[in-house]
C-alpha cells in the first residue's frame, strides 16, 4: 500500500514540473517582474560594453600591427628589389668574368699556337738557310730558279713529300736539289720509260758527280750483272753514292728486281709521273710500297732482322696497341717504322695528282706517310662521300681544306703564276665539224654500224655493261678519227667485221690545218691516242710539197712507242728551243711531230712549236693538260695555240660530245683540290721568299 502511494506521488511531481515549464515558457517565470528583467538587461548591456571596449583595444592593436606589417612589407619589397639589383650586377659581373677567363684562355692558346708556329717557322727558316749553305758548290746553285729551290727546301724539311707543280716548271731539277738538301747517298728514281731518259739527261746536267746505274728497259741478264757489280762495289766501299734509274714496268716480268733493289738499301726514292701508280692494286704501287717500306736497315746497327710486335705507345695512347719493331741483333726498338727502313726520303712528283677521282691521291699519300694514311677506306671516310647518283666518290664539304691542312709542308703545288714564272698565254681554238650522212657518208655508216653492234652485245649480255661501254667508247673515238682496220668481235672473240673505210672528216681537216700552219713558217705538234691515224698522216704529209714552197717537201716524224730510241732523242732536241739555243742550232730537221699521248704527252719539251693540233681529245683532263703543256712551258717566249678538232651532230650525241661532258665532270673533282693545295703552297712560299731575301 505504501509503495503504491509513493509511486503516485512521484508521477504527480513530474507532471507538475512539466506544467510549470510550459507555463514559464508561455507566460514567464511566475513571480518575476519587469523590473527584474530590466535589471538583467542593464547587467547584460554592461557586460556587452565591457566586452566591446576590450575588443576595441585589441582592434587597435590589430590595426597597428597591420600598419606595421604593411610598412615592413614595403621595406621588404625595397630590400628585395635592392637584392635583385645586386644579384643582377653580380651575375653580370660573373658573366663578364667568365668571358674574360674564356678570352684569356683563348688568347693564351692563340699565343701558344703563334709561338709554336713562330718556332716552327724559325726552325723551317734555319733549315732552309742551312740547306743552301751546304750546297753552295752544287752545279745548280746559281742557275736554278727560285721556285725550284724553295720547293726543294720545303720538301727537304719534311723529308718525305709530294711535288705537284704544273707541267713545265722543272720538277726534275727540283727533285735533284731536294736530294742534295737531304744529303741522299743511294737514290732510286722510278718513272715511266720515256720519262726515265729525260731524267738521266737532267742528272748529267745538274748532278754529274753522281754515278748513274741505268736499268731502263734492260734485259734481265744485264740487270743481274749490274746488281752483282754494284753489290761488290758497295761491300768494297767504292760505291757510296749512286742514282739508280729504272722504269716502273721493270719488275712486272722480273720479281727478283725488287729483292735486288731492296738489297742495295737505297736511302732515297723519287717517283716521277706518280699519277701512274693511282691504282692501289697495280703492280707499280705494290712494288714501290715494298721498296719504300722494306724493313732492311736498323737505325742502330744497320742489320735487317726484326721482330714485329703489338704494344701500347704510352706517349700517344694508353689503350690502343700499335706496331713495335725490335732488332734481334742489337735489341733496338722503335714504334716508328721508318727507323727500320733504309729509305728515309721519298718524293713523289706529278702535275696531275688526281686524274679521275679523289682516291687516286691515296697511294701517293701512303708512300709519303703510311702511319697517317694507312688505308684507302679511312681516307675516303675522312675526306670524301659517295655520290649516290654517279656511284663515285667526291670530296666532302670542307674535306679538301682539311686534307690540305693535314698534308701541310709535305705537299707543294704551283702554277706558273704562283711560281713567279711569266710565259705567254695559251689559246684553245675549237673546230666543231658537222658529222652526218652528207658530210662523211661512208664514215657515218661505219659509225652507225659500230653503235648497232655494241647495242646488240649489250642487250645480249647486260652483265658486261661496263666492259662493253669502255670498248664502245674506245672504238667510237677510233672510228671518228680513222676507221680503217677497226675490228669488231663477237662474245667468243671471233672477228665479225673489219672496217675498210678510209674516209675521215677529222683527218682531212687536220691535214688541211697542218698545211695552213706550216705555210706560215711555223712548226706543228699533233696528238692522237691511236697509232693508225698517226701513220696515215705521216704517209700523207711526209715528203709532200708545202703550200708556200712547192719545191720544199714537208718533213714529218712519228713519235710513239714504235719510234726507235735514237729518233726519240733527236725529236726532243729538234723541238726543244732551249737546247737549240744553247747549241747554236738554227736549222731544224722536222716540220711536224705526230705524237701519241702515252709517249709524247709527258716529260717532253717541244717549245720550238707554238701550234698543237688535237686529233682526238684525251678523256682524262690531267693527261689532256699534260699534252697541252708540251709547248706551253718554261722557255716558251711566244703565245701558243691548241687546235681542238671535234665532231658534232644536231640529232644524236657523238662520242666527242660525250667526251667533253665526261671531262667536265672529272674536272669538278680535281679543280677544288688543286685550288686548296695552291693556296696552302702560296703561304709557304711567301714565308720562304721572306726567309731567303738576299739570296
Would you give an account of this structure?
The protein has 695 residues and is of the alpha/beta class. It folds into six domains: 32 residues; 100 residues; 220 residues, Tandem AAA-ATPase domain (Rossmann fold, 3-Layer(aba) Sandwich); 44 residues, no CATH class; 60 residues, no CATH class; 149 residues, P-loop containing nucleotide triphosphate hydrolases (Rossmann fold, 3-Layer(aba) Sandwich), CATH 3.40.50. It is 51% helix and 14% strand. It is built from 20 helices and 20 strands. A seven-stranded parallel β-sheet has the order 3-4-2-5-9-1-12, sandwiched between helices. Strands 13-20-19-16-18-17 form a six-stranded parallel β-sheet, sandwiched between helices. Strand 14 and strand 15 form a beta hairpin. Helix 3 packs across helix 20 and helix 6 runs parallel beside helix 7. The longest helix is centred in the N-terminal third of the chain and has 100 residues. The chain is elongated, with a radius of gyration of 48 Å. The termini are far apart. About 1% of the residues have low confidence.
Amino acid at each position: 500500500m505504501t509503495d503504491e502511494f509513493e509511486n503516485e506521488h512521484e508521477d504527480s511531481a513530474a507532471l507538475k514540473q512539466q506544467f510549470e515549464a510550459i507555463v514559464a515558457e508561455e507566460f514567464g517565470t511566475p513571480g518575476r517582474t519587469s523590473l527584474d528583467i530590466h535589471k538583467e538587461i542593464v547587467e547584460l548591456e554592461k557586460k556587452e560594453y565591457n566586452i566591446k571596449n576590450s575588443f576595441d583595444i585589441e582592434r587597435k592593436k590589430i590595426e597597428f600591427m597591420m600598419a606595421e606589417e604593411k610598412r615592413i612589407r614595403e621595406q621588404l619589397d625595397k630590400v628585395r628589389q635592392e637584392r635583385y639589383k645586386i644579384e643582377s650586377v653580380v651575375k653580370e659581373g660573373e658573366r663578364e668574368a667568365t668571358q674574360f677567363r674564356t678570352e684569356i684562355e683563348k688568347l693564351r692558346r692563340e699565343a701558344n699556337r703563334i709561338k709554336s708556329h713562330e718556332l716552327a717557322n724559325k726552325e723551317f727558316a734555319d733549315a732552309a738557310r742551312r740547306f743552301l749553305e751546304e750546297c753552295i758548290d752544287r752545279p745548280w746553285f746559281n742557275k736554278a730558279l727560285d721556285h725550284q729551290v724553295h720547293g726543294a727546301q720545303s720538301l727537304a724539311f719534311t723529308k718525305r713529300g709530294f711535288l705537284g707543280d704544273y707541267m713545265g716548271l722543272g720538277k726534275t731539277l727540283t727533285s735533284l736539289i731536294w736530294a742534295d738538301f737531304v744529303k741522299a747517298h743511294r737514290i732510286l728514281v722510278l718513272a715511266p720509260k720515256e720519262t726515265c731518259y729525260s731524267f738521266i739527261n737532267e742528272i748529267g746536267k745538274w748532278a754529274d758527280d753522281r754515278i748513274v746505274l741505268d736499268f731502263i728497259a734492260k734485259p734481265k741478264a744485264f740487270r743481274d750483272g749490274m746488281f752483282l757489280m754494284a753489290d761488290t762495289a758497295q761491300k768494297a766501299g767504292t760505291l757510296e753514292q749512286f742514282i739508280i734509274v729504272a722504269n716502273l714496268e721493270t719488275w712486272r716480268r722480273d720479281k727478283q728486281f725488287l729483292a735486288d733493289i731492296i738489297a742495295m738499301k737505297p736511302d732515297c726514292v723519287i717517283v716521277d709521273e706518280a699519277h701512274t701508280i693511282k691504282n692501289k692494286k697495280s703492280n707499280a704501287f705494290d712494288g714501290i710500297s715494298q721498296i719504300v717500306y722494306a724493313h732492311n736497315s736498323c737505325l742502330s746497327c744497320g742489320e735487317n732482322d726484326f721482330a714485329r710486335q703489338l704494344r701500347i705507345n704510352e706517349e700517344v695512347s694508353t689503350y690502343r696497341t700499335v706496331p713495335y719493331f725490335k732488332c734481334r741483333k742489337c735489341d733496338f726498338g722503335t714504334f716508328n717504322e721508318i727507323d727500320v727502313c733504309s729509305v728515309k726520303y721519298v718524293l713523289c712528283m706529278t702535275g696531275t695528282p688526281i686524274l679521275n677521282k679523289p682516291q687516286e691521291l691515296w697511294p701517293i699519300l701512303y708512300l709519303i706517310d703510311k702511319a697517317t694514311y694507312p688505308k684507302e677506306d679511312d681516307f675516303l671516310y675522312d675526306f670524301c662521300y659517295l655520290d649516290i647518283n654517279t656511284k663515285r666518290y667526291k670530296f666532302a664539304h670542307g674535306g679538301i681544306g682539311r686534307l690540305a691542312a693535314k698534308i701541310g709542308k709535305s705537299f707543294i703545288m704551283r702554277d706558273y703564276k704562283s711560281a713567279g714564272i711569266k710565259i705567254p698565254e695559251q689559246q684553245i681554238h675549237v673546230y666543231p665539224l658537222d658529222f652526218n650522212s652528207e658530210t662523211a657518208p661512208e664514215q657515218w655508216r661505219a659509225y652507225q654500224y659500230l653503235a648497232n653492234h655494241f647495242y646488240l652485245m649489250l642487250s645480249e649480255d647486260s652483265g658486261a655493261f661496263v666492259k662493253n661501254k669502255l670498248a664502245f667508247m674506245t672504238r667510237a673515238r677510233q672510228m671518228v678519227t680513222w676507221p680503217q682496220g677497226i675490228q669488231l668481235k663477237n662474245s667468243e672473240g671471233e672477228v665479225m667485221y673489219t672496217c675498210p673505210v678510209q674516209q675521215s672528216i677529222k683527218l682531212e681537216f687536220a691535214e688541211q690545218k697542218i698545211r695552213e700552219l706550216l705555210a706560215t713558217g711555223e712548226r706543228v705538234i699533233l696528238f692522237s691516242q691511236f697509232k693508225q691515224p698517226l701513220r696515215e698522216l705521216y704517209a700523207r704529209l711526209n715528203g709532200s710539197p708545202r703550200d708556200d714552197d712547192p719545191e720544199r717537201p714537208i718533213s714529218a716524224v712519228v713519235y710513239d712507242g714504235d719510234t726507235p730510241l735514237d729518233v726519240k732523242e733527236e725529236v726532243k732536241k729538234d723541238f726543244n728551243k732551249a737546247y737549240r739555243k744553247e747549241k747554236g742550232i738554227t736549222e731544224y730537221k722536222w716540220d711536224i711531230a705526230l705524237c701519241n699521248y702515252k709517249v709524247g704527252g709527258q716529260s717532253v719539251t717541244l717549245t720550238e712549236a707554238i701550234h698543237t693540233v688535237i686529233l682526238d681529245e684525251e678523256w682524262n683532263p690531267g693527261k689532256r693538260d699534260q699534252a697541252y703543256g708540251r709547248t706551253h712551258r718554261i722557255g716558251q717566249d711566244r703565245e701558243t695555240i691548241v687546235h681542238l678538232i671535234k665532231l658534232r651532230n644536231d640529232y644524236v650525241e657523238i662520242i666527242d660530245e660525250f667526251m667533253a661532258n665526261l671531262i667536265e665532270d672529272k674536272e669538278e673533282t680535281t679543280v677544288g683540290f688543286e685550288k686548296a693545295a695552291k693556296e696552302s703552297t702560296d703561304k709557304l712560299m711567301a714565308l720562304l721568299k721572306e726567309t731567303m731575301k738576299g739570296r
